[in-house]
Amino acid sequence: DRIDVDDTENMCRFLTKGVPDFLTYFTAAFGYGMLRHNPRRVMGVVPMWLVRHRAVFTGMVTGLLGVYVNSYLDFKIHREKLKFELRKSQEMRRRAGAKRYGKRYEHNTFFDSLEGMTRRVSAIQMQTYAVAGTFLAITMLPLTSVKFPAFMGDVVFKFPTIPRLFPALVNIKTSSRCLIPYVVAPFTIVSIAQGSTWDVSLYDRFVQYRQGRYEVKHGLPQEEQGSK
């Protein structure tokens, strides 16, 4: 049924778009993190297993952010455009039915052009990029050593995740005191290298083509076709 088709389509989209995007960003961030988390000036201070853990954490964050601004953004825009096509087809059927039976029907001018859908797509894109930019800015926030409450005891041994991923909080030697270091550079480089999701607006041409074929097929008046 339709639910199975949608699930299959979403799975194919995840495997063919989401996974490659994640691996691309993760690989770039992991390699960059391995170089920067253990520079020559602190060689021997940070063991390699700890460098790998921090580089994996950097890669995971960068990979998820890359999926958010690419695969997930494409999915949201694709879903909005499917809704637009469905509502457009319903509107065209109402217009054709009203014309066939000679009844008056007030047209919904939202579907007379792609301007409304283009604005909606642009709003979704800008919202996604704003969230991503804010998150990148947060990752660059500098950390300072924090005095934990006495009831937490020895934080370094009781909570090993804190010194492992956020060493600046417990005043441990680290190559960067940022909240999540070395995310901005690989994310920016990969995003520029593989292009932007602004090209999804080209799909509007396909929507316009589908609308034109539907209007010709159902014999809508020529003046209505010209207004599209």
Distance, first to last CA: 33 Å
Major β-sheet profile: none
Helix fraction by DSSP (H/I, runs of at least 4): 55-70%
Low-confidence stretches: 222-228
Structural class: mainly alpha
String of helices and strands = HHHHHHHHH
> Radius of gyration, rounded?
26 Å
SS elements, strand count: 0
Strand-residue proportion? under 5%
Describe this structure as you would to a colleague:
With 228 residues, the protein is mostly helical. 68% of the residues lie in helices and 0% in strands. The chain has helices at residues 2-36, 48-69, 71-101, 115-139, 155-158, 161-165, 184-194, 203-217, 222-227. The longest helix is centred in the first third of the chain and has 35 residues, at 2-36.
Which characteristics define this entry?
disordered C terminus; mainly alpha; 228 residues; 9 helices
Secondary structure blueprint with pairings:
Elements: H1 2-36, H2 48-69, H3 71-101, H4 115-139, H5 155-158, H6 161-165, H7 184-194, H8 203-217, H9 222-227
Helix pairs in contact: 1-2, 1-7, 2-3, 2-7, 3-4, 3-8
Could you write a compact summary of the structure shown?
This protein has nine helices and no strands.
